[in-house]
């Protein structure tokens, strides 16, 4: 009895823990609280398959319990050798046809949704963004707006936004759980999907394909704003010019160091649209001070930025920035950080939408 009670207590404890943990998480980082059309379609498929699998489970368990209770050997029953039978065409037909029907019920809507979400026949009538995956960050070229940025993807609410995905290096996978399903990002061909967000806010995205030692740190954000805010953000990005910035003396020295130490060879600080076929070397820093995360996951403090500039490998192993520029002193890194923290083209930011 003691052993049985111990197992029961363990089961209750694990069940309670699972129940409590199921309440953890964030609405903007889960496929179970859809905030976009693609995620909504995925949720409907999840519900459909869950209902079918639950039905199968219950039927099997009911049959199992009936057989267990009805045909169990009772105390005092003689030992008998059950009748040996070979095949039952009716039973075999039933357990073949029913699974086929259940698979069709799940497969047809899934295939339809897959092709529907990949249909880009009307893409020319909507916003189009070329998304490039890199180890371990994302780059965005806004085709018609002729601007480019990295990490934070800005889109208007209730609007179809087509993203055309390709990678510069290894395989990646673009996934914003609350807004859409995931799609592979390949080096050989462009894969296309669209995002349509129902609500304004900031939604977390992930790379869903193991791509190296810092795969888990390849995070990004989709910032969903109103149509008016989006138009203003585009205008702010188009008109931003670092040459006209009113920098303090320390930041001005930082800008000069940014150019002298070859940082500018990899990182743009004036928004631009990379020409077709060009490859961005490093993340675009035009709106660096507007981001609510550094390197995709760190708090954007000056201390973290200085540490990143001096030793990026310790924060994001395997990144291509490591060893690509001369060693910097504490003073030089501090001045460059001061400059970058003043790159703020717009008042419309991820932080403002999170509030």
Tags for this model:
5-stranded mixed beta sheet; Immunoglobulin-like; elongated; 16% strand; alpha+beta; single chain; 355 residues
In short:
By secondary structure, the protein is an alpha+beta fold. It has helices at residues 2-21, 37-70, 89-117, 227-239, 249-260, 302-310, 312-315, 330-340, 350-354, and strands spanning 127-134, 137-142, 147-150, 152-156, 161-167, 172-175, 183-185, 191-195, 201-207, 219-225.
Averaged pLDDT, please? 87
Written as H for each helix and E for each strand, in order along the chain, the element string is HHHEEEEEEEEEEHHHHHH
| Computed CA radius of gyration, to the nearest angstrom | 28 Å
Shape: elongated
CATH topology of the domain at 242-354: Immunoglobulin-like
How would you name the CATH homologous superfamily of the domain at 242-354? Cupredoxins -  blue copper proteins
CATH architectural category of the domain at 242-354 = Sandwich
Instruction: Please list the strands of the largest sheet in the order they lie side by side.
Output: 3-2-1-5-8
CATH class of the domain at 242-354: Mainly Beta
Work out the strand percent.
15-25%
Determine the fraction of residues in helical runs and give it as a percent range: 25-40%
DSSP, total strands: 10
Major sheet: 5 strands, mixed
**Helix-strand category:** alpha+beta
- Straight-line distance between termini: 55 Å
Extract low-pLDDT stretches: 273-277
What is the number of helical segments per DSSP (H or I, 4+ residues)?
Answer: 9
Enzyme class: translocase
Domain Cytochrome c: 249-344
Subcellular location: Cell membrane; Membrane
Transmembrane segments: 42-67, 93-118
